[in-house]
Design a protein that fits this description.
- It is built from two helices and 17 strands.
- By secondary structure, it is mainly β.
- A hairpin with a 4-residue loop joins strand 13 and strand 14.
- About 12% of the residues have low confidence.
């Protein structure tokens, strides 16, 4: 350790100890080493949304965008400012890392981890690796759900709006997750968490008939196609299950299967996802349905094509069906009536600026159940959206 002349002088006068100076220097070097491995990242997402036609009271103008009532249907929006500080795991046997992500803005996850109305804790967890076999990763804290084709982050999906399945699945968990790579092609994960609607610090005991000991259980497996499969190389198959309390519901089961498929056409990839949710509990169901046995399912297909290095086109067809009130239409006829919808979404992404996602999207939703859910005497909804996301 190099000590300057002023420190030497103080040590000679007995004011400071060289041993303490050395310890302080070593501690500072340790802190700087830890800080140097920490990364700061995030993004800012803004949008302009136009939803032609009149809107009925209580009916969302743009179905299934994340902002819910916080975003303007006919206007400009700050979707979210996402800020993350993190240290990823390295290759060491006893590696450790963390991730903390905050959201600021109009969008919310629809769950309770909110600091204020416009500030939300999206992720806050610590991950350590235990040298068992190929390495067992242990994550504890708040983390994103392990199921679903689409993510809550605006910069992580091919489209701006979400599919029907996204709104059937849990969003975030507070608990413990174990992850293990069985081979280069197969990985598994399993965990336990509190109420699976993502309530920060919430336990099941806050609802009648539920106890603190009632938890949410989850497991998933991911398979990646090896190079030996030719053009299918890199394709993925993913399946997962989450089972536990959902708000006042004693037990809810979520099932998910999804796949991203490489094709022999250069620049073209395909995808498919299936989500299913079933309420086993005796208490409240989903949406406006208060009954045991409420259920919902969604099926979506995806095509993504890189036209050029700068231009990409993403298409999604989406179908959803469930117990009356599942998709929040505001119109409940009776428990025997089922919500049934279909949508088509076309998104063009143009990479004109570095670090910027710029896309235009057209989405058409149609009610297959005869319910005029989108406005005054209207079974259809057309959404026109411009979206700019800057990533850093």
């Amino acid at each position: 350790m190099k000590v300057n002349k002023w420190t030497n002088g103080l040590a000679a006068a007995g004011v400071v100890s060289l041993a303490s100076v050395a310890q302080a220097g070593e501690a500072n070097e340790t802190v700087m080493t830890a800080v140097s491995s920490t990364t700061l990242s995030g993004y800012v997402s803004t949008s302009a949304i136009w939803d032609p036609g009149s809107q009925a009271a209580g009916i969302p103008g743009v179905p299934f965008h994340l902002g819910g009532g916080g975003l303007a249907n006919d206007g400009f929006n700050l979707d979210v400012v996402s800020l993350s500080i993190s240290k990823p795991l390295d290759e060491g046997e006893w590696s450790a890392g963390y991730n903390a992500q905050l959201w600021f803005g109009d969008s919310t996850l629809g769950v309770a981890p909110a600091v204020t109305d416009d500030t939300q804790i999206k992720n806050a967890n610590v991950t350590v690796r235990v040298p068992v076999g190929n390495g067992l990763d242990v994550k504890m804290g708040i983390f994103d759900t392990i199921i679903g084709y689409e993510a809550s982050d605006y910069n992580a999906n091919p489209n701006y709006t979400r599919n029907y399945g996204w709104f059937l699945s849990p969003v975030t968990h507070e608990g413990l997750l174990l992850s293990y790579n069985v081979t280069d092609s197969v990985s598994v994960s399993a965990g336990v968490a509190e109420s699976n609607n993502g309530t920060l610090g919430g336990t099941a005991s806050g609802f009648p008939g539920l106890a603190d000991t009632q938890k949410t259980w989850m497991a998933a497996v991911a398979i990646t196609a090896p190079d030996s499969l030719g053009f299918l190389s890199g394709s993925t198959l993913y399946a997962g299950v989450v089972d536990g309390s959902w708000g006042a519901t004693a037990d809810t089961t979520h099932l998910y299967v999804g796949s991203t498929i490489a094709t022999p056409v250069e620049g073209l990839t395909a995808g498919i996802s299936w989500d299913y949710r079933f309420n086993n509990g005796p208490a409240a169901g989903f949406g406006t349905v208060a009954t045991s046995g409420a259920w919902a399912t969604a099926l979506a297909g995806y095509l993504s094509y890189a036209v050029t290095e700068k231009v990409g086109v993403n298409y999604r067809v989406d179908w959803g069906q469930g117990t009356d009130g599942t998709f929040g239409d505001g119109v409940v006829v009776g428990n025997l009536t089922q919500d049934k919808l279909i949508s088509n979404t076309l998104t063009v992404d143009y990479k004109a600026w570095e670090n910027v996602i710029s896309r235009a999207e057209v989405r058409w939703d149609h009610s297959l159940d005869g319910v005029q859910r989108y406005g005054n005497s209207d079974r259809n909804d057309l959404s026109l959206i411009l979206n700019l996301v800057y990533q850093f």
